[in-house]
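From the pipeline queue, job 12 of 40. The input is one protein chain; the requested action is below.

Action: predict structure.
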Amino acid sequence: MKIKQLSIFLENRKGRMKNALDTLEKGGVNIRALSIADTSDFGILRLIVPDPEGTKKLLEDNNFIVKIGQVIAVRMPDRPGGLGEILGILDDNDINLEYLYAFVEEKENGAIVLLHPEDIDAGIKALEGGGAEVISAEEIYGL
């Protein structure tokens, strides 16, 4: 139930993110989800892709610094309060959430939220115990 996520470290300068995305396009990599966080000096581009290991190698071969981490994917209703229900499960279990990002899943009329709690295993256990629909890596990569 753990989803591999790429974190690409980018200097905060013009064109660097486009260079990374151009590299992915040339390599035929289809991005399933992404998020960017930045500071004044650098940004972290987080990606979910179907072949995390191969994509990491592609990026590293093109002089990008890449780390593979893990997130949890949860299907939730696309309605007001849907995300609050998921976050409530983590809060009720005293699990700290470091970051999240989400996208709408039109074919299911719902949304997918990607969560990174401090403790991935405890997060999965709490979410499943709280009735959340935790999604497999294979399903996310195949969306």
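Job complete. The chain is about 35% helix and 40% strand.
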